[in-house]
Design a protein that fits this description.
Belongs to the nlpA lipoprotein family. It is found in: Membrane. It comes from Vagococcus acidifermentans. It is a lipid-anchor. Pfam families: Lipoprotein_9. A six-stranded mixed β-sheet has the order 2-1-3-12-4-13. By secondary structure, the protein is α/β, with parallel strands linked by helices. The protein has two domains: 132 residues, D-Maltodextrin-Binding Protein, domain 2; 105 residues, 3-Layer(aba) Sandwich (D-Maltodextrin-Binding Protein, domain 2). The protein contains ten helices and 13 strands. The longest helix has 28 residues. α2 links the parallel β1 and β2. 38% of the residues lie in helices and 22% in strands. α2 packs across α8.
Length: 277
């Protein structure tokens, strides 16, 4: 009888242990997994946010892409759940060209463009006929031309607003040669050109400190609003509570402090200046 009683107690203990393990597994499986697409290998800010989200039961998987053409297609095809790499003008242009309706759900940072050079220290040193490489996509290319205008190097047709092309240059006194390359290639072109206009994230990936290394840095002012980087979702997911928690976790003071400390002025938190969305 004693052996039977002991056996029952052992069996009961084993069942309780299994039940406890089962509860732990269930709790772990309750974590909501969200795939976020980014461009480039520098994910330090999102890694910081990811740690915060884990405490709230959200498992953020950061998916790295190598160029700007991939993350929106992946989002629309439901290969990822969100992306964070672009500004509103880029998104609007993508939607218009591809018939999609991808939608911004929150602002992140402003990432100013810079003019970089391995050969000169100032834009004033550019000589007649020098070559400058710029991104070849319509939105960043247009932004780059406007930056060259702000640097006093060219003038563009004002009627083109934020989307001038090389054909819209109305004044180019130094007869600068403007070469259009994939945005990921502009930093690599610096050995071959007098100067290159490089997006903030691409410059960081190439080892530059944008505020210190650029020979001309895009000013952040009222005209910067269309270039604020955003978190983007499919239209049916704009009110998804988990995604809204991700936006809220990003737009916090600790993230702002992390960005300012880590990137100095290369990335500038945008949600306080330009609104949360």
């Amino acid at each position: 009888m004693k052996k039977i009683t002991t056996g029952i107690l052992i069996l009961a203990s084993a069942l309780l242990l299994l039940a406890g393990c089962g509860k732990g597994s269930a709790k772990q499986s309750d974590n909501k997994k969200v795939k976020l697409g980014v461009v480039g290998s520098d994910t330090r800010t999102w890694d910081f946010v990811k740690e915060k989200l884990a405490k709230d039961g959200i498992d953020l998987e950061i998916v790295e892409f190598t160029d700007y053409n991939q993350p929106n297609a992946a989002l629309n095809d439901k290969e990822i759940d969100l992306n964070s790499f672009q500004h509103q003008i880029f998104l609007d242009n993508y939607n218009n060209e591809h018939g999609t309706k991808l939608t911004s759900i929150g602002n992140t940072v402003n990432s100013p463009l810079g003019i970089y050079s391995e050969k000169i220290k100032s834009v004033d040193e550019l000589k007649d006929g020098d070559e400058i490489s710029i991104p070849n996509d319509p939105t960043n290319g247009g932004r780059a031309l406007i930056l060259l205008q702000k640097a006093g190097l060219i003038k563009v047709n004002a009627a083109k607003n934020n989307l001038p092309t090389v054909e819209d240059i109305t004044e180019n006194k130094k007869q600068l040669k403007i070469t259009e390359l994939d945005a990921a290639q502009t930093a690599r072109s610096l050995q071959d050109v007098a100067a290159a206009i490089i997006n903030g994230g691409m410059a960081i990936d190439a080892g530059y400190s944008p505020k210190q290394d650029a020979i001309f840095f895009e000013p952040v002012d009222d005209e910067s609003r269309p270039y604020v980087n955003i978190i983007v979702a499919r239209p049916e997911d704009t009110d998804n509570q988990t995604y809204q928690k991700i936006v809220a976790a990003y737009q916090q003071d600790d993230v702002k402090d992390f960005i300012l400390e880590t990137y100095k002025e290369a990335y500038q938190p945008a949600w306080e200046t330009f609104g949360k969305k």
